[in-house]
Design brief:
Strand order of the largest sheet: 7-8-10-11-16-15-14-13
Largest sheet: 8 strands, mixed
Organism: Urochloa decumbens
Radius of gyration: 23 Å
Structural class: mainly beta
Protein name: F-box domain-containing protein
Number of helices: 9
Domain F-box: 3-49
Length: 465
């Protein structure tokens, strides 16, 4: 006769055992059974190092390529993979596009799901609504973008996905209603998906303050830089809808307001960094400005504060080496379709190995004496700089240059660091016919070890092996 199973551990004893687990194992333990999850949550065992408080790399969307690439930091290159085809079991040649459309606190939005690359869990999305609730008046066309809201400090298992209109891009015909209509409208009706209900719904947001302008005046003010511009910060969603204004959507009271960009013209990047929402702008190819949005005193006193203003052309390096050589960051390359399939394989052991420790993390943080800090070099005047995003926890903005390298610029000390290559090898080979080598969107990625999504690789089975 088989012996009777041992009695369950008391909560105090179980909590003592769980406290000794490594961060990733503690996050996985929440998925084993309800009792373990209850102890982890009730005893507040979820430590700060499980939250998205480190930079894991940058996800990159490239022109004419429907598979997102991942430039990984050395501390997370083995622990987190940018490969996402496990979310679509089946034949490789039948995979949908694996193209990241947004990122928020460790979760990524794909066309068919929301996925957490750190825990390798995902939630399938139902079809988008056929008819979006918010349309401009007749005679106007408008584009839409998707923006993810996920706050693991409030609810580690829940997220929301918003479909927002950008400014109208085309005036079909003269219409009196268009001439008199404001944009954005006084009541903004958005399609919102909630993971709690599993449903799309319409949600209204009332405008506080003035509109950005009239509909005809908005035509032609579409973004001329990266496709996706937005971030979530302290209960509000900030979205750059055009080259002249940002929309701040307050989720707590269902209101929104229009915030003018600090300057007009040039290239912009809106994102979050050490203290909140920032905007980087480039003028005359190399005049870099960093602006901070002071948004703590209400809408009447919201202002952009200039934090940095410098022509960085004189300090740009002359990188005279093969653009395909790696730097301290490693580009994980992915091409999933047909006979040209290519991806950087990371073993299951490496994916599940806990390697992020405090001392290792410090080793790879910004070091002004590091060998990768670049010295100024002679450059031609045809330099082309693209803004790729902010470091979420340091005074660093990411750039790319004409040599197709990813650079980190620390605006507190005016130093540049070479991180690695921007484009995968197959992307620049002529056989693939990628005629225009451009970045369409970029997402600095912060791994999160919290939360439980419905679909997952078999974490429980791995624990029992």
């Amino acid at each position: 006769m088989d012996p009777a199973p041992p009695p369950p551990l008391p909560d105090d004893a179980l909590a003592s055992v769980l406290r000794g687990l490594a961060p990733r194992d503690l996050a996985v333990s929440r998925c084993v059974c309800k009792a373990w999850r209850r102890v982890v949550d009730d005893r507040r065992l979820l430590r700060a190092d499980l939250l998205p408080r480190s930079l894991g790399g940058i996800f990159l969307n490239l022109h004419d390529l429907w598979f997102t690439q991942f430039l990984a930091r050395p501390t997370t290159g083995a622990a987190v993979s940018g490969r996402l085809d496990y979310t679509v079991p089946g034949e490789p040649d039948r995979l949908p596009i694996l193209y990241v459309s947004d990122h928020c606190n460790g979760l990524l939005v794909l066309d068919h799901c929301v996925v957490n690359p750190a825990t390798r869990q995902w939630a399938l999305l139902p079809p988008r609504p056929d008819d979006l609730p918010q349309h401009p008046p007749p005679g106007m066309d408008v584009c839409t973008d998707e923006y993810l809201v996920f706050d693991p400090t409030l609810s580690p298992d829940d997220f929301e996905l918003f479909i927002l209109p950008s400014v109208p891009y085309k005036l079909k015909q003269s219409d009196e209603e268009c001439e008199e209509s404001e944009w954005p409208p006084s009541t903004l009706i958005l399609s919102v998906f909630s993971s709690k209900t599993g449903l799309w719904e319409e949600r209204e947001f009332g405008r506080e303050g003035a509109a950005a302008g009239t509909l005809p005046g908005m035509v032609g003010s579409v973004r001329s830089f990266l496709d996706h511009q937005g971030c979530y910060w302290r209960g509000a969603l900030y979205v750059c809808c055009s080259d002249c204004f940002v929309m701040r959507i307050s989720l707590s009271n269902s209101t929104y307001r229009v915030i003018r960009l600090p300057t007009e013209g040039g290239e912009f990047y809106l994102g979050k960094s050490i203290k909140g929402v920032y905007c980087a702008s480039l003028f005359q190819k190399s005049q870099l400005q960093i602006w901070f949005l002071n948004d703590e005193c209400g809408h009447d006193q919201t202002e952009w504060v200039l934090k940095h203003d410098r022509d960085i052309f004189p300090i740009l390096p002359n990188l005279n080496y093969d653009e395909q050589c790696d730097g301290p960051w490693i580009l994980q390359e992915f091409y999933y379709w047909g006979p040209e399939q290519h991806y950087d394989e990371i073993s299951e052991l490496e994916v599940n190995e806990v390697i992020v420790e405090d001392k290792m993390e410090e080793k790879f943080e910004w070091d002004s004496d590091n060998d990768n800090v670049l010295e100024p070099g002679s450059r031609s005047n045809d330099s082309c700089i693209i803004l790729l995003g902010f470091h979420p926890y340091k005074k660093v903005v990411f750039l790319s240059d004409k040599f197709d390298r990813v650079l980190a610029y620390n605006w507190s000390i005016s130093k540049l660091q070479d991180l690695g290559k921007l484009f995968p090898k197959f992307y620049i080979e002529h056989d693939y016919q990628f005629f225009h080598r451009l970045v369409r969107a970029s997402f600095p990625y912060t791994p999160c070890w919290l939360g439980e999504l419905p679909e997952k690789l078999n974490s429980e089975a791995r624990l029992q092996d």
